[in-house]
Amino acid sequence: MGFALVSSPFLVMVLGPFHGVMVVNFLGACSSFLILIQVFRDVEYKKILLMLIPAVVMTIPGAWVASKLGGPWLSVGIAAMVILALLSSFMVRNLRAAQSKGLAVGAGAISGFMSVTAGVSGPAIAGYAVASRWPQAKFAISVQLYFFVLAIASLLAKGGMPELHWTQWIGCLVAMVLGILLGNYLAPKIPDKFSRAFVIIVAFSGAITLMINGLTQALA
């Protein structure tokens, strides 16, 4: 989830709102797949499917909105969704316990729409996980299947792969792998509260910058 929240605003500024989000979806799918192949036996498939089905369905209207809105106003919308997602991350810990299927379906639908429009599908289902008291270890394993399938569905809803030069593809993949390796190295050395604060600051900075750029272009 941190990957999407941090990378989405910056990739959108570099590649544009449509293709930037597609790159976030693709790299997110790659990252989740690398984890999924190691933990697929422990995935809680019934819980995931309850959220995944409405999420995949909502990629269709989400892709339509992304294609029709386009341009700077889509950038503004993406920035707003990233900021709302970040703010919601502070609120989920205060949610009351809830086990209803309707909550799972609603969280999946919101997550699917945000995945294809802004590349940030995690906060909505994280909120459900907290509210339903889903054990963190089991959620972290199961959600890899959710992210992988939803990212693929988001790409298909938008018509396939983003259009990048082969050097850009290599640059993105190398950067992602280096980031994972660096994160694994630094994780034991940096207190959790500092790493979380760093991610939030970078994500907020990117989203605010993207919103300013989008508004400037839209109102020019």
TrEMBL record:
The chain crosses the membrane at residues 12-36, 48-67, 73-92, 104-131, 137-157, 169-188, 194-215. Its main location: membrane. Belongs to the 4-toluene sulfonate uptake permease (TSUP) (TC 2.A.102) family. It is a multi-pass membrane protein. InterPro entries: TM_pro_TauE-like. This is Probable membrane transporter protein. Signal peptide: none annotated. Keywords: Cell membrane, Membrane, Transmembrane, Transmembrane helix. It is found in: Cell membrane; Membrane. The keyword Transport does not apply.
